[in-house]
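Figure 3 (text version): structure tokens given as input.
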């Protein structure tokens, strides 16, 4: 781990390290940046450094407090008792979740000398939730640090912004991103950016499944006999995989299909041909649609999917 493990934003990372070392970090700090700026990773790294007992610029990784960041038996990351990550799934951080965080903030630290609260995509709080949270910023507890992230700073209350120090993050160079994620090409990068998927959170097995499925994409869209073969192969891979693990992969794959479909759609609609391979593809896409709908609440993506599917009808 450490800041060096992900690319970009060297100046901001240096500044944060210096501030950590000299203990001059602002109590409320907001990391502002788009999807691929590693704002969540920087927030986590900062939280680790703040809780580490060595007081160095980065977390030492070996002290008893750092070891609380280990992993459980199933490999999931552990959160130390003095750290709270407010990152519920979905588009909203509800007021009840904010209230729960406020209760956490109100209690004294248990093992470390301080507490750290990380709030991911702060802009998911509506006005009411933001106002509730504002109260703790207005009457700060001396032992609590707040690390917030956002991609949409304009939706945050001015009163929250005035009490936070904002650090702007930029997206690293494309080459660095491809290397870091181990992505085959820029198409996947576009997907990560647009759909907000966190590649690092996708387990290795799913990545392998994804790359096997991805190999079918070019022949699938090339038309002719190769398409039918690719469609059958895709179906097989899908049926092989467990439902849960294939869900995220399909989400990614379908996004990829959508991107391809976008350009292909015009041609297919124009010709309206009913080749046998199109039936295969249609069947496959209809099956994926249910899963896709479950995992996406993005209306424009759904419209796109519907248009794409109708082209095979
Ligand atoms: Zn440590």
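Below: residues designed for each position.
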């Amino acid at each position: 781990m450490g800041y060096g493990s992900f690319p970009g934003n060297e100046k901001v990372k240096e500044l944060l390290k210096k501030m950590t070392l000299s203990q001059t970090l602002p109590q409320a700090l907001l990391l502002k940046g788009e999807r691929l700026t590693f704002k969540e990773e920087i927030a986590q790294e900062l939280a680790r450094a703040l809780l580490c007992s060595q007081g160095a610029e980065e977390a030492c990784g070996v002290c008893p407090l750092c070891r609380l960041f280990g992993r459980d038996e199933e490999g999931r990351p552990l959160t130390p008792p003095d750290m709270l990550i407010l990152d519920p799934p979905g588009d909203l951080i509800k007021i009840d979740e904010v209230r729960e965080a406020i209760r956490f903030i109100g209690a004294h630290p248990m093992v470390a000398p301080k507490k750290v609260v990380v709030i991911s995509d702060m802009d998911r709080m509506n006005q009411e939730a933001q106002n509730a949270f504002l109260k703790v910023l207005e009457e700060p507890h001396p032992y609590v640090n707040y690390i917030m992230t956002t991609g949409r700073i304009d939706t945050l209350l001015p009163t929250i912004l005035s009490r936070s120090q904002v650090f702007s993050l930029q997206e690293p160079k494309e080459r660095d991103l491809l290397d870091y994620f181990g992505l085959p090409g820029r198409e996947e990068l576009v997907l990560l950016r647009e759909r907000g998927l966190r590649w690092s959170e996708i387990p290795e097995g799913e990545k392998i499944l994804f790359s096997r499925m991805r190999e079918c994409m070019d022949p699938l869209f090339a038309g002719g006999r190769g398409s039918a073969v690719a469609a059958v192969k895709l179906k097989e891979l899908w049926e092989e995989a467990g439902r849960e693990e294939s869900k995220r992969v399909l989400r990614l794959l379908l996004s990829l299909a959508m991107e391809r479909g976008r350009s292909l759609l015009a041609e297919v609609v124009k010709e309206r041909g009913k080749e046998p391979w199109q039936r295969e593809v249609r069947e496959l896409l209809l099956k994926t649609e249910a899963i896709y709908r479950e995992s996406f609440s993005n209306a424009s993506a759904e419209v796109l999917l519907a248009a794409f599917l109708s082209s095979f009808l």
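The longest helix spans residues 243-271.
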